[in-house]
Design goal:
single chain, globular, 3 helices, alpha+beta, three-stranded antiparallel beta sheet
């Protein structure tokens, strides 16, 4: 059940914009010196609980160049994310929360 359809529509617009921007950023990272690339795994605690929200978040992360959802913990409370640039894992998590997880929480899992 979708509770805020305009928020969900805005979410899809943000995702499309982020995919375009990330394509350019990843291309610049790959073309530049290889020492700039610092890949690694990030553990993100999940606030989403429903199947649809978790699936949309994991797929959104994987669609955005430079990041990939590796797996969801068995208890569904942690998402392991692989990123090409992990200089600041907290900033990556904060960005994912703000741009992707929060709109999905508002739309699919109202309080």
């Amino acid at each position: 059940h979708i509770h805020k359809p305009l928020t969900l529509l805005r979410f899809f617009g943000v995702v499309l914009l982020d995919i375009l921007v990330a394509n350019v950023a990843v291309a610049a990272l790959v073309i530049g010196p290889s020492k700039r690339i610092r890949p690694g795994f990030i553990l993100m605690p999940m606030r989403l609980r429903g199947n649809v929200g978790l699936s949309l978040l994991a797929n959104t992360i994987s669609l955005t160049p430079g990041t990939l959802s590796a797996f969801l913990s068995a208890d569904r409370t942690q998402l392991v994310i692989h990123a090409l640039q992990t200089d600041d894992p907290d900033a990556i998590i904060a960005l994912i929360r703000e741009r992707y997880e929060q709109p999905l929480l508002e739309t699919l899992e109202p309080r």
